[in-house]
Amino acid sequence: MDIKELPGKLLQQSWDSCLDQEEWFPPLEQALQGVTAKQAVWKPLDGPSNCIHETVRHLIFYKKRLLMNANGETEGFPETENNTGTFNVEDASEAGWAASKEELYRLHRELSALVEKSDVDMLGRKFSDGGTLGGGIRTLAMHDAYHIGQIVMLSKMQGVWPATRSFS
Hints:
Distance between the termini: 27 Å
Strand content: under 5%
Protein name: DinB-like domain-containing protein
Helix content: 55-70%
Organism: Saccharibacillus endophyticus
Shape: globular
Largest sheet: none
InterPro entries: DinB-like, DinB/YfiT-like
Number of strands: 0
Domain DinB-like: 28-151
CATH class: Mainly Alpha
Number of helices: 7
CATH architecture: Up-down Bundle
């Protein structure tokens, strides 16, 4: 392997571990597997918390922004006044929940394909907002891992998360 390929390979591994490749935490597909729309909108009674569906919409917001930045797209670019606006769920039905998961997985895979074909120069190319694909993927991988932990905790609080699971 050429040393110039290493940053992309490391980013790819981190990114894949957030969607469907188990590493030291469960990936999104496993964390969301079997969660119903009703469970996805459940919130604990005490304290402020976002539900699973809101968290998924939040992840979608930032993945969509990065993908659009990377592709140089400006029309329909996701904007919000503050971070709270990124958690908005418009359709809490089973169909809406299924559509949110599908959009999350699609965006993640599209970003994965970009990283896979990127070299060091492409990963470091500046976007109009000053960010880069490499920096965005690195940040969003950590962001995903953080929110996957929240999703797992909310699932555990509802008794949805399995008592034991394999790490295959």
